[in-house]
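Minutes, methods subgroup
Present: GH (chair), OT, SY

1. OT presented the first of two proteins processed in the latest run. Sequence and C-alpha cells recorded below as shown on screen.
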Amino acid sequence: MWYKYILWSIVIILAAAGQVFLSSSQNAIMANFDLLLIILVLLVNLSSFERVIWFLVLSGVIMDIYSSLPFGIFMVSYLLTAIILEALFKNFFTNRSFYSLLIIGSIGVLVYNLFFLSFSGLIYYLGGSEYFTNWRYLGAIGWQLVNVVIFLALAFLFINYLSKRFKPVFLHS
C-alpha cells in the first residue's frame, strides 16, 4: 500500500516539473498551458478529494519553490480553486458528461486566475512583492482557457474510450 503513495508522489513531482518547464517556455501556447489545473479538474471529476488535496499540497509547494512570488500564492490559489470545483461538481455537475467537464474546466481557469490575481495584487500593494500583472495577462488567460478546454476534451475522449468513468448510467424502469 505504501508504494502507491511513492508512485503518486513521483507522478505529482513530474507534473509540477512539467508545469515549471512549460511556464518558462518562450512559446505563447506552451507558456500558458496549465498542466496542474488540467490535472486538478480531472482529479476532481475522477478521484477522491483527499487525493486532490495531496496533489495540491505537493505540486503547490513545488510551484512556490520555483516562483519569485511570495511562498504560498500558488498553493492557496489551487486549493481554493479545488474547493470551489469540488462544490460545483458535487452539487451541480454530477453527471460526468463531456459538457460538464468542459464547463468545470472553464470555471476552474477563471476562478484560479481570479484568486491568483487577487493574492498577487494584494501582496504587491502591501509591499511584499515586486510582481504586478499587466494587460497581457488577460490574453494569457484566454490562451489558458483555450488550452484547458482542448486538452480536457481530448482527455475526456481518451478516458471515455479506455474506461467507464465518464459513461452515463441510465436507469430503466
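2. SY then presented the second protein from the same run.
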Amino acid sequence: MTPTQDSAAAASPGRYSAVTWAVIGLALVLYYPQFSTSYGGTAIFLLAGDCMLQGERLAACSPGYSYPPFFAFFMIPLSLLPLWAGKLAWYGVVIATTYGCFRICETLTIGSFGVTRKELVWVRLFTLVLSFKFVLAVFANQAYDSLVFFFLLVGLYGLSENKTLLGAFGLAAAAALKATPLLMLLYPLLHRKWKLFALGVGLCAVLSLLPDVLFPPSPPNAGYLRTWVVGFAGGGLLGTSPAEGYSQFFQGSSNLNQSLKAFVYRLVDPRDLPWGDFTGQAQVILNAVYLVYCLTALAILLRSAKAEGAHLWGASVVVISMLMLSPISSKSHFVALLLPHMAIVAYLLKHREVWARAVPLLCASFVLNVLASRWPAGRGLSEKMMSLGSITIATLLLLAVVAVIVFRREKDAKR
C-alpha cells in the first residue's frame, strides 16, 4: 500500500526530529572528554559540597568558591560520588537544565504570541544562532548559570500561569543560588502578586539558611551565609573590599567581566583610553550611569505591562538588568539572554512593521557578541572588543530592541 502525501508529510517531521536528536546526542558525547578535562568550576563545586559536609569554611577549604552557600548544599549529593562520576553527573545537570531553559522559554513564547508550528522552527533556529555563544560558554566554563536560569524560568512560568507555589519556589531557589535573581523576586510586585512575593521571600530565606542549620560550620560564629554576604556579596554590591583574589573582576581590570560596573571602570582607566585619568571619580560616574540605566529600565518595565506578551518583556528587562547591575557578569552568565532573544525573534516574525527599527539593533547586538569570540574574530580582536565592553554594549542594544517593541505607536500596532 502506497502512503498518501499527507501521511508522508506527517512522518517527515518525525524523521527530521530523530536525526536532530541523534546529532545533538553524538555532539554531547564527543564533547564530554573536553568538558571533563578542561579547567572549570566542576572540581570547585564538588569540593565545596564536601567542605560543607565537613563543616569547613567554604572559601578556605575550596579555593575559588565565591557562590552562595545554598549552591554548595545543592552539590553535596554529587560530592559523595567518585570524582569521575561527580563530573559526569554535573555534565548531566548542565545538559538537562540547558534543555529545560530552552523548553520553558518556548512554552512562554508560544503562549504569549501564538507561535505556529511552522514559525516555531524559525524561532528555534534564530534563537540558537543568537544565543549559542553563551550556551557554549556555560559548558566551556562548567558553570552553573543554566541551573540558576532554569529555576528563574520555573518561577516565571508559575507567575504567568498563576501557580503561586511553583512561582515562589522557582524564584526563591534562583535567588538562593545566586544573588542577582533577587531582582526577579521583586518582579511579582509589579503585577500585584503579593502572596507569591511574600512566599518567595520566605522560601528564599529558608533555603539560604538551610546550610547553616543542617551543617553548622566550625567555628559556629563563622556562618556560611554571613561569611558569603560579608566577603563576597558585600564587596561586589556594596562597594566594600571584595575577597582577596577577586578585585580584578570587581574593579573591571579583567576583560572577562562585562557588567556595567566593569565597563565604567575600564572606561575611566587612563591605561586603556586617552582622555585622562578619572579613576578618582569612578564611583561618582558609576552611580550616575546606574541612575540613568535604572530610570530607563524602569520606564521600559512599566510600559511593558501594557504590551502584548507583557510577562515576557517585563522579565526580559529584569534579566538584562541582572546582567548589567551585577558586579560580575562573565560570558556564561549571559545564557539568560535566551529569554529576550526568543521573545524578540517570535515577536518580529509576527510583526514586520517594527523590522525597520528593531532588526538593525538586533543585528548590531549579534555582531558585537560575535566579535567578542575567539572564533571567528581571532584572539587579538576578541580581547580588544571585550576590553571595550562589546558584550555589555550588545546587551544594552538588546534592551533598546525591547524598548522599540513596547513603545511602538498604536497606529503601528493596528497596521
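Chair's summary of item 2: The chain has a mean pLDDT of 88.
Next meeting: continue with the remaining queue.
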